[in-house]
User: Fold this.
Amino acid sequence: MSGTGPSGAPQRVGQVKEITSLSNPVIKDIRALSMKKHRDETRSFLAEGLKLVIDAIDLGWVIRTLIYAKAQRGKPQVEAIAALTVARGGLVLEVSEKVLTAITRRDNPQAVIAVFEQKLTSLEAIELRPDDTWIALDRVRDPGNLGTIIRTADAVGAAGVMLIDDTVDPFSTETVRATMGSIFATPLVRATSGQFLDWSARAGALVVGSHLKGSVDYRTIDYRGRPVVLLMGNEQAGLPEQLATGCGQLARIPQAGRADSLNLAIATGIMLYEARRHLLDLGEAAP
Ligand code: SAM
Assistant:
């Protein structure tokens, strides 16, 4: 049974399942989302935190299950997203602290978590605009690096992130945590290196490969007036020859010390802020 509450949000009556047992099959299913195989099969993933869940729903992501701690019952924001979840055909679970700890594998779990449908875009669906900056990542291995890059891409106003070949799963809990919510604001594309090279040959974007042996200082490239793709290499191997030769420019970030290279996420941040320098200002900073 449902009606409409004072805020206009639908109200739910008796549609919340209370669960305290770890052997409940629904909980087992949610816990299995820590495995890539299960995430792939169900095309879903877990996100943690009330603000993050609200933002994701606002941005149009499909919520499948809302899970909250018993102590959250009656809190207006939680009630509102619970009502929305029910209205959209999702499941709402009120669970014990023990169950939340088991799902998140954390001692101090967030009180609100949710299962969302995965969303990936294809290269063909991209409509490039002159001020667009995309990041293309070649076989990135570290979930923390990927999450940090997605967060930085969001912060700098990049158009999205392309995951090439065997790049780590963007929907793993570790990556989602490292994005701090930016996973919901950043379009993600998966492609093989062959598909990426075909697309970039036709797309009309300037592809800048970030390379330790790049011949050009990254600060001397003119990034203005055309879409740019920043292509970043794998943490161990760097960019393979096949991808490097597909780049319009190979850029190097100067180094002065003893380090062989920069961390991938740091290098991506440096490249991104330079490529979008002309598009960024402080706007109206909070006092
Ligand atoms: N041993 C690897 C190699 O030979 O390229 C190091 C890879 S580095 C940890 C990961 C990626 O970060 C590189 O492929 C490159 O895209 C970028 N990167 C790191 N330091 C850089 C620098 N000084 N100039 C340009 N790109 C850099």
User: Anything to note?
Assistant: The two ends are 47 Å apart (CA to CA). The mean pLDDT is 94. Residues 123-280 form a domain with the Alpha/beta knot fold (CATH 3.40.1280.10). Residues 210-212, 214, 232-233, 235, 238-239, 252-253, 255, 261-262, 264, 267 surround S-adenosylmethionine (CB under 6 Å).
